Amino acid sequence: EDQVTQSPEALRLQEGESSSLNCSYTVSGLRGLFWYRQDPGKGPEFLFTLYSAGEEKEKERLKATLTKKESFLHITAPKPEDSATYLCAVPNFGNEKLTFGTGTRLTIIP
Amino acid sequence: IAGITQAPTSQILAAGRRMTLRCTQDMRHNAMYWYRQDLGLGLRLIHYSNTAGTTGKGEVPDGYSVSRANTDDFPLTLASAVPSQTSVYFCASRQGYTGELFFGEGSRLTVL
After folding, report:
1. With contacts defined as CB-CB under 8 Å, which chain B residues touch A32?
2. pLDDT given for residue B95 in this prediction
3. Which residues in chain B show pLDDT less than 50?
4. Residue A4: pLDDT band by 50, 70, 90 thresholds?
5. Is there a contact between A95 and B97 if contact means CB atoms under 8 Å apart?
């Protein structure tokens, strides 16, 4: 059974303090790993897709990386508007559905 | 604005009552999904549909049913609501096999 584990559950950073969020996975043949951002009271919003170990994607202050066992979401010099819950997900073997991790709740303090 | 529309936004329901959560998309996506989101448990898949006329069970399907009569609509029905179905429900869609799911704003359901 596919499993996705995210850590930490919650992270509080000062504005400008860089850090990383972790997503480790156990799947029978990786067919991609996806990152989403979710604001309170809203549905998740797609950020990145990573397909192979060594791949990196960037968007503003966020950079996602992928190894054979885990993915990191690096946040550089974050701003308060980066505060959100960040979710990662993997597709099942048939690529019919996504399994999500429980997320990391990120708070950036001004 | 294109996207996913869910209704109702919020509902309080007595246990034992029947409830249908509505979901409509205008992006002509083939696949649609219903997830529930609970604190500490994350998003869990209830049912999905890869194309109109077909449906499949997700991780937590018991007590829920879905139908997919056309491409745009994917209603979720609770035949006889129970308090454990108190949750936030998200409908989503995607085109093809990309990882990009488009989510609705959610329906917050409280069963008393």
Report:
1. 99
2. 81
3. none
4. very high
5. yes
pLDDT band at A92 (very low <50, low <70, confident <90, very high): confident
Best mutation target among A49, A96, A99 (most B Cβ atoms within 10 Å) is A96
The residues, any chain, with a CB within 8 Å of residue A49's CB and separated by 6 or more, are A32, A33, A34, A57, B98, B99, B100
**Can you give the pLDDT at residue B41?**
87
Question: Cβ–Cβ contacts within 10 Å for residue A63, how many?
Answer: 16
Q: Does A100 touch chain B (CB under 8 A)?
A: yes
What is residue B1's predicted lDDT score, i.e. its pLDDT?
Answer: 60
CA dihedral A89, B51, B48, A87 (to 10 degrees): 20
| A44: its two tokens | 């998740």
Tokens 């980066």 correspond to: A82
Range from A24-28, A52-56, B48-52 carrying the lowest mean pLDDT: A24-28
Size (chain B), residues: 112
Mapping DSSP onto H, E and C, the string for chain B reads: CCCEEEECCEEEECCCCCEEEEEEECCCCCEEEEEEEECCCEEEEEEEECCCCCCEECCCCCCEEECCCCCCECCEEECCCCHHHCEEEEEEEECCCCCCCEECCCEEEEEC
- B58 to chain A: which residues are within 8 Å by CB? 97
Count chain A–chain B contacts defined by CB atoms under 8 A: 58
* Rounded CA separation A81/A15 (Å): 10
